[in-house]
Design goal:
The structure is a single chain. With about 300 residues, this protein is an alpha/beta fold. The protein is built from twelve helices and ten strands. It is elongated. The two termini are about 15 Å apart.
């Protein structure tokens, strides 16, 4: 997919978020000066768009620094917002890159059940298989039979080896077996359970998986990727905190941006935690997960053409 084609897909996927933000800007700034009242309303609009209180306040202040008490157009404000958001996102826009020195490069994929974690693993597997890399998948979410079956389907689809056990099997033991079988492969993607009802249980299971992997490879896992669901809005901030504290998250992927008006939460997450954002998902298709591009995302979110 060309860059312009992907921008169109991103724009379409973020239409609900852009509509909420862009329509609000239009209604606020048609024939209006950027005075104190207008700035206050802009800040409230950004908070409602899930950018978070601190981020919204800083963006508003930055826009006011050059335009305060001047006549502004909605388009000017949307472009200014896109610039400010891109400035926040650019430092965290980093693709998930494999280190050829690691064979396999081990990626532990974590997240709350329902975020699209297993589907994301399948899409990542397809991306790397299409690039000619050998991929092994580990169905480590043994709590849900559906997750095991889903990963097996993806494995068949992309030609990846799948290491799976029965429902309720020991996830750490499965991860150990998967790493054994993946020797010499380019990539090992490990699915995990995401039950947050009991944080202690979740922490114990993920910690055990990491401990067992390191018996074979002291440097594993080489990445711990947290999958977030944009539709959960500000609750994603709590999820980042829990998983970061549990298993030293190294990067993020955000899914389901096409199903929500809360896409701005990615800005809040990036601003607060500074963790790399590897990719975003804007649909169910295998090609609807793409490496994260800060400027494209910012423009699509604000309804601004490139």
């Amino acid at each position: 997919m060309s860059r312009q084609g992907w921008f169109g897909r991103l724009k379409s996927g973020l239409a609900r978020s852009a509509g909420a933000l862009g329509d609000g800007v239009t209604s606020l700034f048609t024939k209006r000066r950027l005075d104190g009242a207008a700035l206050e309303e802009l800040e409230e609009l950004l908070i409602r768009a899930d950018l978070g209180v601190q981020t919204a306040a800083r963006i508003t202040a930055n826009i006011a620094s050059t335009r305060h008490d001047k006549d502004v157009t909605p388009e000017e404000i949307r472009r200014a917002l896109a610039e400010q958001i891109a400035h926040i996102l650019e430092p965290v826009a980093r693709p998930l890159e494999l280190d050829p020195a690691n064979r396999p490069h081990v990626v532990l994929v974590v997240g709350v059940n329902g975020t699209g974690k297993t589907t994301t693993i399948g899409k990542l597997a397809k991306h790397h298989a299409d690039a000619g890399r050998t991929v092994v998948l580990c169905a480590g979410d043994t709590f849900w039979a559906a997750a095991i079956e889903q990963l097996q389907i993806w494995g068949q689809r992309v030609g990846a080896t799948v290491v799976a056990g029965r429902q309720g099997a020991d996830a750490a033991g499965l991860a150990f077996d998967a790493l054994t079988r993946a020797k010499g492969a380019d990539l090992l993607l490990i699915d995990t359970a995401g039950r947050l009802q009991n944080k202690a249980d979740l922490m114990a299971e993920l910690t055990k998986i990491v401990r067992v992997l390191r018996k074979q490879d002291p440097s594993a896992p080489h990445d711990v990727v947290l999958v977030l669901d944009a539709t959960t809005g500000q609750n994603t901030l709590n999820q980042v905190e829990v998983f970061r504290d549990t298993c030293a998250v190294t990067g993020l992927i955000m899914t389901k941006l096409d199903g929500t008006a809360r896409g701005g939460v990615l800005v809040a997450v990036a601003d607060r935690f500074g963790l790399p954002v590897h990719a975003v998902g804007v649909g169910e298709g295998a090609d609807d997960l793409k490496p994260f591009q800060a400027a494209d995302f910012a423009r699509a979110l604000c309804g601004v053409e490139p």
